[in-house]
């Protein structure tokens, strides 16, 4: 069991995405946090006394970021893209593997209290799917760092308001809503999950003491906020 460092600072990477926007809103409302630092390439369009924007390029994170902000902070990573947005496997890997790993290394080096990240259901180094294989490789690289507290969330399809929702996004969400009642027993883990539930679990896990590594599968993420279930420990 890791004794939690008390902190009033949260650092968020990926604040412009659907998950990141929801997470920032929750953090701003949380009285435990007095400073929310978002690492962005462009402004997120929110004005709040607790919010601090740091414009950085993740290709040059160490040189552009004042790493003192990571000291004793809870670091949240919601960085991610799609193959359609990235345009190539190399570009996808950069956003979904290299950038989160660079942030985690900085968090480890500069004394962050915790590192909380969203990956994906079925993330595995051995996956035949490129997307989940990259996520699995990222998880293994994060585990090798020896972070004082690492929390990994593996949600299924995320439901919420997307800034640039494609026809494919809408179609997939519609299909998941239709089949949701049929996903019972072992299939329950495939149920789509609300983005806000994942964000709430991220904040809750960051505030708690726990083992050095915890992994939350999709089917327990929303229940985790009520303490009905315990996450997987690895």
UniProtKB/TrEMBL annotation:
Domain of life, source organism? Bacteria
Q: Which InterPro entries match?
A: FAR_NAD-bd, Him1/Fmp52, NAD(P)-bd_dom_sf
Thioester reductase (TE) domain: residues covered:
12-65
Q: Name one Pfam family in it.
A: HIM1
- Cite the PANTHER family for this sequence: OXIDOREDUCTASE HTATIP2 (PTHR14097)
Q: What is this protein called?
A: Uncharacterized conserved protein YbjT, contains NAD(P)-binding and DUF2867 domains
